[in-house]
Specification:
By secondary structure, this protein is α/β, with parallel strands linked by helices. The protein has 11 helices and 8 strands. An 8-stranded parallel beta barrel has the order 1-2-3-4-5-6-7-8, surrounded by 8 helices. The chain binds erythose-4-phosphate.
């Protein structure tokens, strides 16, 4: 499973990228707004740091606005993936982007049917929001399982990005189900690295060493 970071914060991206396991970045309007910076500048900077798919979301909700914004964002760098919300207009835009050779990430996916339609429309990626499904007392992981089963059944080229990851066990469960990618917030990546027995082990090794040398 490939690892993306779900953030628009340049310092977080630099820090995680330096460890060598980062395959891509996803952003969304909330994450960009949190940085309070020029949208296109942020995307450009991210592309200069990480060599992999960088999702940038369209803000406009009508077809023409989606296409104009998507084209503009895609022109920033070949690695930019246009994130399009799942809707009738969104599916139409995904289909058009496919014909233009622009890669897309169908976002705000909450059902296997939405994922199926996005894949058939030509989405390069679909992003089921696991944590938000859990928030309404359903199972995000069961949704992921359904999508993976459908995609495997027909060998769809569309890749699944497990999104809205809330804790380290989400990541393990995604990897066990064969999610192609998980996009993970900075804080959860840090939690994945940590283990109390590793910390205790390091401390004991250092103390034992110091007692003799
Ligand atoms: C994914 O592409 C989204 O940016 C993100 O995972 C949403 O997560 P949230 O539900 O924690 O906002």
């Amino acid at each position: 499973m490939r690892i993306f970071i779900d953030t628009a914060n340049i310092e977080e991206i630099k820090e995680i990228n330096a460890m060598g396991f980062l395959d891509g970045v996803t952003t969304n309007p909330t994450l960009i707004a949190r940085e309070g910076r020029n949208y296109r500048e942020v995307i450009k900077e991210i592309c200069a740091i990480v060599n992999g798919p960088i999702s940038a979301e369209v803000i406009g909700m009508d077809y023409d606005a989606m296409i104009d914004e998507g084209r503009e964002l895609a022109a920033i760098h070949p690695n930019v993936v246009i994130k399009v919300p799942l809707s009738e207009t969104g599916l139409r835009a995904i289909h058009s982007f496919k014909q233009m050779g622009i890669t897309t990430n169908a976002t705000l996916v909450f059902s296997a049917n939405q994922a199926l339609l996005a894949a058939r429309s030509g989405a390069s990626f679909v992003s089921p929001f696991l944590g938000r499904v859990d928030d309404i007392s359903n199972s995000g992981i069961m949704l992921l399982e359904d999508i993976i089963t459908v995609f495997d059944q027909y060998s769809f080229p569309t890749e699944v990005i497990s999104a809205s990851i809330r804790h380290p066990m989400h990541v393990v469960e995604c990897a066990k189900r064969g999610s192609h990618i998980a996009t993970i917030p900075y804080a959860v990546i840090k939690q994945m690295i940590k283990h109390p027995l590793t910390d205790a082990g390091i401390e004991k090794f250092i103390n034992d060493w110091k007692q003799v040398f």
